[in-house]
Amino acid sequence: MSPARTASPDRAAGTDQAGAPSSASTTIMSARGLHLAFGQTKALRGVDLDITAGEVLAITGPSGSGKSTLLHVLAGVLVPDAGSVDYGGTTVTDLDEAARSRLRLHEFGFVFQFGQLLPDLSALDNVTVPLLLTGTPRRKALAAARDALAELDLAEHAAKRPTQMSGGQAQRVAIARALVTGPRILFADEPTGSLDSLAAERAMEALVGSVRARGASMVIITHDARTAAYADREVTVRDGRLTIGGPGGAASTAAAATTATTATTAGGPR
Ligand SMILES: Nc1ncnc2c1ncn2[C@@H]1O[C@H](COP(=O)(O)OP(=O)(O)OP(=O)(O)O)[C@@H](O)[C@H]1O
């Protein structure tokens, strides 16, 4: 079993790692005192943030304020100069690149603005890839990928390559690819930024609906108020600091827990 797997919070609903009943507001990721500079540019200047199991958290803020940097540090893509990120009892920021890579592959999912699908592969093969990387046998991986595509209303497009689909369809393939491994946290960086408003709405409905149906958490960066409206909680980054929204305030956590508990597969805005 890889360190990434041992880092996972218990996947059985209702228990924590020690087997005790978990409250609906269990913190699954906790960041403290994050600082990161790129040369003279201080992208993060002391960020504290908690992510609760089952919550959809929007990170908003002006261009260049540090949103993507924060998301990449939380997801173990970047290592901060100071501060720590804890996930399920593992200090992500202490792991080496190989262990962080395993963690990303097994525990996290990623959706980016421009889907970043492999252009020469069909939708089905694109969604199958992460499962093959985690060691899932090919036949099982293909079946799971087909299910994920069907869930996003893409069954009839499975054989198409990304260039043969609309932007919205391709982005939904990217969502299926991010969800097919069953991530506990999905990190989405402007996932609808390249889409027109109708396609963006459809993609967000699919994304939030699928995340809630799985009881996963999502951290979503967005400039768009309509996208942020799907979140349970919103924090704002300015000049590398959180200016609105604390680590995971009681009121917002309770709201997120309520939403997670009562969530259906419908993913409409608040
Ligand atoms: N790899 C890098 N090298 C140098 N500077 C960087 C790098 N990545 C980010 N920065 C700088 O760090 C600051 C924060 O960037 P970041 O991408 O996190 O902002 P953002 O809020 O996500 O912006 P946007 O909304 O425009 O995507 C910016 O000043 C940016 O220019």
Automatic annotation (TrEMBL):
<keyword id="KW-0813">Transport</keyword>
<protein>
    <submittedName>
        <fullName>Lipoprotein-releasing system ATP-binding protein LolD</fullName>
        <ecNumber>3.6.3.-</ecNumber>
    </submittedName>
</protein>
<dbReference type="InterPro" id="IPR017911">
    <property type="entry name" value="MacB-like_ATP-bd"/>
</dbReference>
<dbReference type="Pfam" id="PF00005">
    <property type="entry name" value="ABC_tran"/>
</dbReference>
<dbReference type="GO" id="GO:0005524">
    <property type="term" value="F:ATP binding"/>
</dbReference>
<dbReference type="InterPro" id="IPR003593">
    <property type="entry name" value="AAA+_ATPase"/>
</dbReference>
<feature type="region of interest" description="Disordered">
    <location>
        <begin position="1"/>
        <end position="24"/>
    </location>
</feature>
<dbReference type="GO" id="GO:0016887">
    <property type="term" value="F:ATP hydrolysis activity"/>
</dbReference>
<dbReference type="InterPro" id="IPR015854">
    <property type="entry name" value="ABC_transpr_LolD-like"/>
</dbReference>
<dbReference type="InterPro" id="IPR017871">
    <property type="entry name" value="ABC_transporter-like_CS"/>
</dbReference>
<keyword id="KW-0449">Lipoprotein</keyword>
<feature type="domain" description="ABC transporter">
    <location>
        <begin position="29"/>
        <end position="264"/>
    </location>
</feature>
<dbReference type="InterPro" id="IPR003439">
    <property type="entry name" value="ABC_transporter-like_ATP-bd"/>
</dbReference>
<keyword id="KW-0547">Nucleotide-binding</keyword>
<dbReference type="InterPro" id="IPR027417">
    <property type="entry name" value="P-loop_NTPase"/>
</dbReference>
<feature type="region of interest" description="Disordered">
    <location>
        <begin position="244"/>
        <end position="270"/>
    </location>
</feature>
<keyword id="KW-0067">ATP-binding</keyword>
<feature type="compositionally biased region" description="Low complexity">
    <location>
        <begin position="250"/>
        <end position="270"/>
    </location>
</feature>
<keyword id="KW-0378">Hydrolase</keyword>
<dbReference type="GO" id="GO:0005886">
    <property type="term" value="C:plasma membrane"/>
</dbReference>
<dbReference type="GO" id="GO:0022857">
    <property type="term" value="F:transmembrane transporter activity"/>
</dbReference>
